[in-house]
Amino acid sequence: MKQHLGRQSGVQNVEVSLIDGKVDITPKEDGQIDPAQLLKATYDSGVTAAEMDITARGKIVKDQTGALALQVTPSQSFAFAPNDLSKGLESLAGTPTEVTVRGQLYKKPPGQKKPKPPNTFQLLVLQVENKEVQKKE
After folding, report:
1. Considering the domain 52-137 in this protein, what is its CATH number?
2. Most exposed residue of 70, 97, 105, 136, measured as fewest CB within 10 angstroms of its CB?
């Protein structure tokens, strides 16, 4: 599994803990990781992913439908699953404040051994770790 995940675009390092049943993936400094590709690589290695949690940093934006999202790069953002924590970030939409959040991006549907990865992922915010206004240089 470590090799399958390590070959994915944007991945710098993969740490596997069989005792905890967890895999930690560190992206490259300028890398962009595709969650669907990570799930596919996990299943291709013969392992079932129960859930995918991420810690990500970015700016709060509104997408074309007006929904809140965390924009981590100019070309990648994660729509928020509505909850009290994500609603609390609404006032930061469109501001230069960068936010670090820990959240759940995927949870395996009960009763399915090998579900298809979703077409779109929603980030369920579990914790807001940091808010920092970016200064213009």
Report:
1. 2.40.50
2. 136
